[in-house]
Amino acid sequence: MSRLEPPFYPIVFVRGYAGTEAILEDTVATPFMGFNLGSTKVRQRWDGAVTQHVFESPLVRLMKDYGYLDAYREGAVVSGAGVPARTVFVYRYYDEVAERGDRREIEAYARGLGDFIQSIRDLVAGGDRAARDAFRVYLVGHSMGGLVCRCFLQNPGVSSDEARRLVDKVYTYGTPHDGLAFNVLGNVPGFFSLNNADNFNRTRMREYLDLPGDSPSVNTLSDRFETDRFFCLVGTDDRDYPAFSGWTRRLVGPMSDGLVQIASAAVRGTPRAFVHRSHSGHFGMVNSEEGYQNLVRFLFGDARVDGVLKVKTLTLPSKVQRDLDAGRRVRASYHFEVVARCRGVVWDMHRRTVGEASAVFRTYDELFPESGAPRHPYLFSLFLSSLCRVNTRRASLGFSVDLGVPVPEYEIDGAVWREDHHEGGYLYRDKLNFALTPPATDGAGWSLRYGADSRSPNRATGSVPGTPARHDGATVVSIPIRQTRRPGIDAELELRIRPWNGPEPAGRR
Asked: Cβ(1)–Cβ(82) under 8 Å?
């Protein structure tokens, strides 16, 4: 029996959709079905020299950074008890398709996933009852692979509660959680059944996800799995998706990863990160530092930080305000840009900007409704890990939030206001730097320091104003976001800080 070392459970990769028979054959002919490909990019050093940055692939990095092994020995899949818990498996559901000569419904793949997970438990825990009770597994799905995972978790008819209980966390890359949609056709029609393309039709999705037929959307876990333990990586680079000679990205359009629209790539209520990567290929999210670093922090991290911007007031330019006071109709919508990074590294954990068509968008009426709750911009979910510190002797976990609120285009009586408008202006723009120190003992709060680049570049110099609150197991702090000159903003960046990878809820034991 292999010793279990939480949070280092076995990891199961589930690949995405093979759209043609040629792609399917190429897929089954490789041991890792694409998760080992990696990528090589050029970067400019401090001295101006252009060098290569090599990302070896998520699979290789898990082996090098965290001691994971692959599941192959002497030309075959491992067998017998005693397999190390730190093992990466690939769920090869397309092997049967290649052998049979025809494709099966997604429910069959989900049923097979449940069987596969239970077979991994036998390999790792053997017959030891305590080890079998403690056994857990992580699922990592790319594209349709994430829908196979959801079908397994959400449809009680395809597997057993015992198998579903073994899943600790799920991470998806570029999964069309609310279906695929094209500019002209809309959602993939149900009659597009060639090679099971109707798996991305919402009517068909309601069937295999066991959702009500009148459900307006399908991007919900319907209380079948904890949303907090389900992570969605969303791609925002539509231009670098190479599949089908670029026709797919032309059909889907911008505000997508070239195949999956941004609005469809996350499950409602789950943590997620946006990265400027395409659906797949050399510039794809699977073959990226951004994807990998979000993955390992979500699986193995120590803390989760969620950021919400609570807007109190938005002021108008003085001339626009005078028009409003004179009874003219003034309209505006607002974008919120955010880039979240970790200390000591050169890639982004989370990135949403206007220039990349991914910024958070809110209308004035959503921010300040006449009735009901305001729709506050949800900026980021960030996972931090002591295992990723660049200085292991430093207790704090460092991260930064680059926050910008561009000056909008104002409309007065239906006409765009151009006077005194300079494109590229901001109501607010600054980078906030944070140093988060875990509690020394259980029950103690987190210690947080912060600073702004406008006053102390790249440093967290002061304490958070006020007294941190406690709510639902989280430490809640508020950072003032204020620019008093017109047009300006008065808001608070609310951070909710929670420990991660602690004891699992009693209902899942």
From this structure: yes
The answer to whether the CB of 259 falls within 8 A of the CB of 246 is no
Preceding omega of 487 cis (within 30 degrees of 0): yes
Spatial distance between the Cα atoms of 296 and 277, rounded to a whole number of angstroms:
18
Residues recorded for the chain: 509
pTM above 0.85, yes or no: yes
Q: Residue 26: what residue type?
A: D
Place of tokens 């602690």: 502
Write down the pLDDT at residue 98. 64
Q: What pLDDT does residue 507 have?
A: 43
Return the closest-CA partner of residue 387 out of 299, 287, 499: 299
Q: Which residues make Cβ contacts (< 8 Å) with residue 432, sequence separation at least 6?
A: 400, 401, 402, 403, 450, 451, 452, 453, 479, 493
The answer, yes or no, to whether the previous bond of 6 is cis (omega within 30 of 0) is: no
CA distance 339 to 350: 6
- In degrees and rounded to multiples of 5, residue 83 shows phi and psi of -70, 135
State yes or no: pLDDT of 1 exceeds 50: no
Query: Is the distance from CB of 277 to CB of 291 less than 8 angstroms?
Result: yes
Separation of alpha carbons 260 and 236, rounded Å? 9
Contact 239, 314 (CB under 8 A): no
The tokens for 401 are 């939030």
Most confident of 97-101, 159-163, 344-348: 159-163
User: For residues 233 and 285, is the Cβ–Cβ distance under 8 A?
Assistant: yes
- Residue 366, C-beta contacts closer than 8 angstroms, at least 6 positions apart: 374, 375
Q: Is the pLDDT of residue 412 over 70?
A: yes
Q: Buried (b) or exposed (e) across 377-391, using 16+ Cβ within 10 A?
A: bebbbbbbbeebbee
Percent of the chain with pLDDT over 90: 69
Question: What would the two tokens of residue 91 be?
Answer: 């769920």
Query: Among residues of the chain, what percentage have pLDDT more than 70?
Result: 91
Largest interatomic CA distance in the chain:
81
